[in-house]
Amino acid sequence: MKKPINRIIFVDDDTIQHMINRKNLQRLKPDIELFFFENPFKALEWIEENEADLLILDVNMPEMNGWNFLDLLKEKGKEIEVKMLTSSMDPSDIEMSLNYGMVSGFLIKPLKNEIMAEILGV
In order of start, what are the domains of the chain with their CATH numbers? Predict the structure, then answer.
């Protein structure tokens, strides 16, 4: 049985999506703990000190892309399930994800309620 998702960290430079995702996820699971970061470096600092059940990581961000973020996570020895977040499915991203055992899938922006409910198991 899959372990329940109670803490999610989002790393995405889109603050509008943060607001929408927070509202929708809290409606689906009111007791969920959500952590949102626009800055990937601040997110890495948070992950060093804290645990989460799932990382939802934007592929394309201005400061660093999602793949660089995953490389830094690996360097730090941090293991967490990751769903890559993208606005368009690029076949090269799927190919790239095969290099990262922690990547369990891709999510298309904007996140749909059915997809979030499936991830949360509600």
Answer: 7-120 (3.40.50.2300)
